[in-house]
Amino acid sequence: MKKSNIIYASIVGTIILAIILYFSLRHTEGDGHVHTEGETHTEESHSDEKEPTAIKEVELNEAQFKASSIQLGTFSDKNLSEVIKANGYTKLPPQNQADVSVFTTGIVKTINVMEGQRVSKGQTIATIESPEFTKIQESYLTSKSNLEYLKLEFERQKTLSDEEVNSKKVFQKTKSDYEIERARFNSLQKQLNTLHISGNGNSTATVPVIAPISGNITEIYIKIGSNVEAGKPLMNIVDNSKLHVDLLVYEKDLFKVKQGQNVRFILTNQDNTEINGKIFSVGKSFENETKSVAVHADISNNQQKLIPGMYVNALIDAGANTVKALPSEAIIKADGKEFIFVLEEGHKEEVAHDEKEGHNHEDGDKHEEAEGKTFHFQRIEVKTGTTQLGYTQVTLLQKIEPNAKIVLKGAYYVQSHLLKSEGGGGHAH
């Protein structure tokens, strides 16, 4: 029985000693950084972790850059969230259109403009000839002479009446004649002014037709030799420099719309030009068919890109929550992510020095001139938000310089060069 106990104790002791030696050896190997299977496993586990997005870079030479029509710029502050969508039409205010007419009958002698031509206010656009114009001038000169005589007679009779030399009846008759002639003279003078005749004594049968506003001739209703009637339009002039936009806002959004709010819309057929305006009136009654209210806004059209009757989709800024935004075409999608391209300033000089070691600055300058100017673009990952009127909210996921130049137009062209490079996408830093 004693022998069995001794054997059992020996076995247990051997096992305990083996365990102690095993853990001791394992700890020593870990401290000495011996490449064991365990350490290999650790490296593999690290390699399984998600790698950060590699920074991609594209190089374009000067010819490629010019041919691509790339446009560079920076972020814009846009209100893309607190907005009301509306649609409507551009409309010409009545103050910006005019029918040209004359006040007496006559014959068209000359036409000095053509349809579509730009004219200025006060410009002579045609001439009308009529004997009636001569008669008006003759009547004016006669009335002027009579008025001068009656004025003197009125002053004389007034003096006599004050001194009680003559009767009040004679004075009242003279006063009446003087006032009647003065009224006739003023009327004839206004007629001459309307006909744009000076009335200086040189009578003429031809009068000019003057443009009442500045604008473009849209229609000409006459030709040389035509007989014109008083008040009948001869031409039509339209000034498109200022237009109105009439928008329809639905009942649910009406309480958000106020006078003075900004209005924006995009001309998709004119390189996505953004037009801005301001609300000057909100309708007080509903349109029965659409259950909407008409909202009127002034818009600037200095570049003459708008014409009356154009259909527009507009945004009304109902708040002041602006965000950083870029044109939607500046954002590309690749591998399930979204990116923009940023121009790397000063990268060209660094590349020149790396490619040619040990050269002085003069050699470097010659080297750059020989190669030509190059443009380096870095692909930056972003997160996008709301999109409105061709602009998209953008949040940067990588840091860039505050005034960095971003590819606003031509981003997909830059991306195509990235895809053509080795490995399907430029070199990674």
Give an overview of the whole structure.
- The protein has 429 residues and is of the alpha+beta class.
- The protein has four domains: 2-47; 56-78 and 323-428, conserved putative lor/sdh protein from methanococcus maripaludis s2 fold (Beta Barrel), CATH 2.40.420; 83-92 and 240-317, Beta Barrel (Elongation Factor Tu (Ef-tu), domain 3); 98-237, OB fold (Dihydrolipoamide Acetyltransferase, E2P), CATH 2.40.50.100.
- 32% of the residues lie in helices and 34% in strands.
- The protein contains eight helices and 24 strands.
- Strands 1, 3, 18, 19, 20, 21, 22 and 24 form an eight-stranded antiparallel sheet that branches. The protein has a six-stranded antiparallel beta barrel with strand order 4-13-16-15-14-17.
- Strand 21 and strand 22 (391-396) form a beta hairpin.
- The protein is elongated and about 175 Å long.
- Mean pLDDT is 79; it is low at 27-53, 348-370 and 424-429.
List keywords for this structure.
4 domains, 6-stranded antiparallel β-barrel, conserved putative lor/sdh protein from methanococcus maripaludis s2 fold, 24 strands, Elongation Factor Tu (Ef-tu), domain 3, alpha+beta, 8-stranded antiparallel sheet
